[in-house]
Amino acid sequence: MPTTPLPLRGLDDALVQQYHRDGFLIIENVFRPDEVASLLEAVEHGDRVAKTTVAPKDATGKAAKLAIWFETGTDIWSALSTNPRLVNNVRILLGEEIAFFHGKVILKEARTGGAWEWHQDYGYWYDQGFAFPRLISASTALDPATRENGCLEVLRGSHRLGRVTHGAFGGQTGIDPVRIKALEPLFERVYCEMKPGSVLFFHSNLLHCSGPNLSAKHRRSVIMCYNALTNPLLQIGYKDSMGLTSRAETHACPVGPDDGILRAAGR
Length: 267
Hints:
Radius of gyration: 17 Å
Order of helices and strands: EHEHHEEHHEEHEEEEHEEEEH
Number of strands: 14
Oligomer: single chain
CATH topology: Jelly Rolls
Helix content: 10-25%
């Protein structure tokens, strides 16, 4: 599908309007090959990913691995989460100041990587206590994302449905397949094929899924999630299907240096 290079001064009005119409936006060449290589090095050899990986099962029993964390710090993942190419453009899309929510690495390994069932991110985060769906995810491709290796699939404009009821399917939380089958004809299904270094920005109510990786090539990506700073996090003690409660930061997300990824990697 067509993608757009990141404008030098950030997202312009036309791209912002496209995001609000479609619920997502793919921008290519946000991160350079040397930055992507540094992030992959951290995936394969870093402590944070190794220590935080969980593996919920899809409906067929395949493991859909991810590593997740809820705080910024001084490592390469914190450098990515505070990178101005993400933070400033999420601010533009939300139209307000933002807070860091969490980061996660998606590990869809060759031939064994499980699917992610149809869901909305706010389907999880509502139960974690966020009052409004004023949250955005920014997914950076670290490997080529293709149909063959289980790229993200979205229903264009489906964020306008509002929150849809979620339930347990396999070891994941998702939307009833019967309802998805009825909803699909209302929207265009888009396969978000991406080159390494491209970023997919998407709304927390956008319906999305991804198939299993039956190919010989890994599909790894890293997703940084942000909350509007004024979006209340209700203290209701709920947990999502993985037993997680939200610990979103309550201060404005800092904006780090543009070369922070390479600095953190010692390059």
